[in-house]
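Follow-up to my post from last week.
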Amino acid sequence: MKKVGVAILGLGVVGGGTYRILTEHREFYQTTQSLDINVECVLEQNEERLKELGVPEELVAHNIAEVACNPDVNIVVECIGGVSVARDYVLDVLYGGKTVVTSNKELIAKYYHELERTAKRHSAGLYFEASCVGGVPIIRTLLDGVQSNKIVSMMGIINGTTNFILTKMTEEGTSYAEALQEAQKLGYAEADPDADVEGFDAAYKLSVLSSLAFHTKIPYTKVLREGITGITPEDISHGKALGYRLKLLAISKQSEEGIEVRVHPAFVKKDHPLASVSGSYNAVFLTGDSLGDLMLYGKGAGDLPTGSAVVSDILYAASRTEPRYSTFKNNANPEKEIKFVSDFASSYYMRLSVNDRTGVLSKIAAIFGKNNISILELLQTPDAEGATLVLVTHETHEAAIKNAVAKLNASDIAKVEAVLRVVS
Amino acid sequence: MKKVGVAILGLGVVGGGTYRILTEHREFYQTTQSLDINVECVLEQNEERLKELGVPEELVAHNIAEVACNPDVNIVVECIGGVSVARDYVLDVLYGGKTVVTSNKELIAKYYHELERTAKRHSAGLYFEASCVGGVPIIRTLLDGVQSNKIVSMMGIINGTTNFILTKMTEEGTSYAEALQEAQKLGYAEADPDADVEGFDAAYKLSVLSSLAFHTKIPYTKVLREGITGITPEDISHGKALGYRLKLLAISKQSEEGIEVRVHPAFVKKDHPLASVSGSYNAVFLTGDSLGDLMLYGKGAGDLPTGSAVVSDILYAASRTEPRYSTFKNNANPEKEIKFVSDFASSYYMRLSVNDRTGVLSKIAAIFGKNNISILELLQTPDAEGATLVLVTHETHEAAIKNAVAKLNASDIAKVEAVLRVVS
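User reply:
Got it. Predicted complex:
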């Protein structure tokens, strides 16, 4: 039976989950995969954590050199997170020809180019299923399951924290601040929640997944990114009344015009498969030219779900005689080589406060008309100072909406209180 | 660039889709996979079909020997269907050391044992993603995406024809006969619909998928199989009122008691991810010990979706230096080696006609009580001859329900009109 030695760098949530799965399933993998996967060493200084996981003292390495030079280690799992130490350690290990499995989305989004070049030069593998959407094998699917397709578009709920917050706001009508507090209490959100609620986490993942889907490097800096901090229960509730659910969506599309990549809150119809992805669940909805629609749905985070992705990568790497590299080109200068679409097409939801005077609606309609925007649904309700107008447009373009909003706000008839994109 | 020659046996729906994808995407695979996949020959006698697909005359082989002996053919795609000719041809090809990709679920369910043995002996690959759930890469996921998990259970909507019929009955209240006729008119059901509506097709697929999930041969003959021909709009509508949707489910579970495999109609709660899988869509809902829940959702049939699975197998096979075999044991005698659970646990829906007399309900309750069955929900409505009683039980066992039904039918107080399982 093939023996494979594994080292784990960092025994936090994911590293700890990986350690537990590997030690508890060793016999299972011998029987079902004909692989003897053994944890040879770990790099972790937190003694309490080592005790909690029951790691034998002799497995604890003291520095990265001990790991990189250990001839019994074939595969190194990086679960340190961040990009400074993690990048150095991963490069050290790759130089020695050892295969790396990482759960670090920021590392892959920022340094994939360099890491894969190093890996190839030293015939080492580089796998990162766990970096995107936890237990959901979306990367394996893109590389080995739907690689026969030209991917047309991808739409995902790929951040559990924001999905938990938006689900709570939708189901219980709570404010953003209350929902965030609850998420923090339950450990779904960090004390500093910006990476999640401002969409950085989703943008890193979208960069990685779109690069794989479109076979070309999509820099995370090119992702249009808007978070959920400005979302009000009022807009969620108006959307609900119109048959929509609000989600933080990561969207990428490829067409003759170019590539568009964006992370922002958006309404989806309540019978769309993504609408019922609630709480800490994640999902990716792909469209391929041959297979049509495909959705993968599962746990986007957590020690065991993400550990499951790490271990599947280990087993995959161990079962191959040569590494499997991803299929995206290492474009030297993607920002110049690729055309990124910023004036993309979408439908829009808009909430306006209007003066309740004769002729106001026709003036508003005129501004929309001048921008070639036609209205699909409209709901007017009186309020203390006039009226609230909620509307959804037919498909139009980003620039047209921005123009119409500026014109409306410059007029004395209406104030645009909220604009949200709608997946049509 | 690696050159790979492909032969396609049978240019029906899936074979034709495969031919189209391969010819239209040749350059795309050169760029993205560094593979030059060329259709070297096809085996198909229908000249009209050959013309329709635009197959050049020189590609048409006249017999299987021409294919098996063609040194330029590395991978043979079997899309003939059935098990007599297809089995012979696949064996012929494997003997010559050529890799086989097949979309034939019946062939794999019945002869996997023999085919894999032959493939291994001749160092040939054997891939069958397209045999189960069309464009959904469920087999790749089981083998390479979630192989780190002990699969606890699997629950799928894996037959498009029956899902179309049940969706139509649910949404429009039509009878089974009308819905079947509509499915036949639209080409979703065969003139002889038994393979689909009696659950054979789903049972073959469940046998293949469970074998992969549980790493042990699950003979299709061990699948409890009940079709949808007896389903009435009345029960669908009662279930709907109680918050359930009726689906033909393929279920398999593994526990300390053994393995259970079954295909039958069942109610699922309307907010379960499987409930909204409508029409010709398919989905598989997996639970793994580490990853938790995972659902894959997509097109279960059709020329391009299933062709997409065939071509993904071709690309996967071509990218490897050695074949990837499945991880289920070739048990010599699975029926004796495995414990199959027949008295499984489930909740149940029941519809009874009852005499509208004092004390009837307490007598019925007594029969349930004697069988340790407790009732979760109950709905009584008067009708011409007495009353209709609709109920859903808490989780109980198959044997207890059968016993209670026999007792009720033997009494003079009630007649059991329908019993359906409920996923709890």
